[in-house]
Amino acid sequence: MPGPQPQRFAAYIEGLAEAAGHADRHNPLKNYCTGLLLPGERKSVEPMAARLAPENVRRMHQALHHVVADAAWNDEAVLDRCLDFVMPAMLRRGPVVAWVVDDTGFPKKGRESVGVARQYCGEVGKKDNCRVAVSLSMTTEKASMPVSFRLYLPEPWVHDRQRRKKTGVPDSIQFQTKPDMALDQIRRARERGIPEGVVLADAGYGMDSNFRSQLTKWGMAYVLGIQKNTTVWKPGEQPKPAPARKGNTGRPRKLLQRDEQHQPIAVKELALSLPATAWSKVIWRQGVKQKLQSRFAALRVRPAHRDYWRSAPHPEEWLLIEWPTGESEPTKYWLSTMSADIALAELAHLAKHRWIIERDYQELKQELGLGHYEGLGWRGFHHHATLCIAAYGFLVAERSRFSPSARFGHLGLPTPSPPPDFRPSGSPRSVRAA
Description:
Layout: H1 4-19, H2 26-37, H3 45-52, H4 57-70, H5 75-91, E1 98-107, E2 117-121, E3 126-139, E4 144-151, H6 155-158, H7 161-167, H8 178-192, E5 198-201, H9 203-206, H10 209-217, E6 222-226, E7 231-233, E8 265-266, H11 267-272, E9 280-286, E10 291-303, E11 317-322, E12 332-336, H12 344-353, H13 358-366, H14 378-401
Parallel strand pairs: 1-5, 5-6
Antiparallel strand pairs: 1-3, 2-3, 3-4, 6-12, 7-8, 7-10, 9-10, 10-11, 11-12
Helix pairs in contact: 1-2, 1-5, 1-14, 2-3, 2-4, 2-14, 3-4, 4-14, 5-14
């Protein structure tokens, strides 16, 4: 492979292959990563085999299928090796800004593919038959990279022994909420020594008070989405202290109090009550065509979630509210434990920084075939996702090195054409593989 970029790619995938262990896996794993980066609309095993080895599609297909569906290599070990290569390249261009928690959906028909259930799917914007995975991404100001990725297993799957056995779900996998899964991913990232950033996530995570409190225990600041019905105490207010004990009998009361005249308020109601002077126009970054801007207000409030079971009020946090010009009411709300003296523009910038990972998932899905794996099993789903992320990691490193515009099909990789009569399984006879 001539040229410095193909040489770097060869060294990179050699390192990934070594992390996968047994020597028999090396060539198939390297071929799989190469196939993911080659041009082509479909990145499932069969079309990739046809592109990689048009003269012997069957043998290549068997090798690729085995390494992704059957071989027992460790996903975390391969992703760790990927990060050893990608992280220094990212950090040369700037420090870590945030860790972004997100989940992504994969529409899927039937009920036999691991994790498939009727649940909310962001890709289609509604509940649908799909799989959902939870991820954690490391981000700088200009680049981002998933560092952890795991399938969410709905409760019906957890208790279905037959489907678990058929799809190879490990016995160790029990039901976890998405916020609990995210906490596990964050815990491991901290143990691994990845430079920490502000934790960003949408309301699916921000509404979980245990998620917020655990981040605070770890000393990690956050900017987390919440829903408009979330209750807080108005600035300067808090629940009443426990009343003094009457006489000398009985235990002293410790729990905070509310009454009809002293209640927390929903953040939407609080936002609507603010004067016009509370709102400021903020530009949070330069977009492709224009500056991205909106109206924001930020207040110091105390969350009210179940504080009647507490002896001390929740600490003050920022309530950040977005109300774009022309909208009839505010559209987004966040709670944040950033410092009390942070500027409004910086707080809004952090809240909006979560969207940096959109390009990751757009390219992982559209260019690298993250959702194209056609197998049913737990191992294959995660192996395919790991290799997609690892292949994407090389592009992230190359962009961070010197070329933000580095794209697929420009890595100097050989791109043989599939056999002229090749058709992937299940396709009409008139349709050839992309």
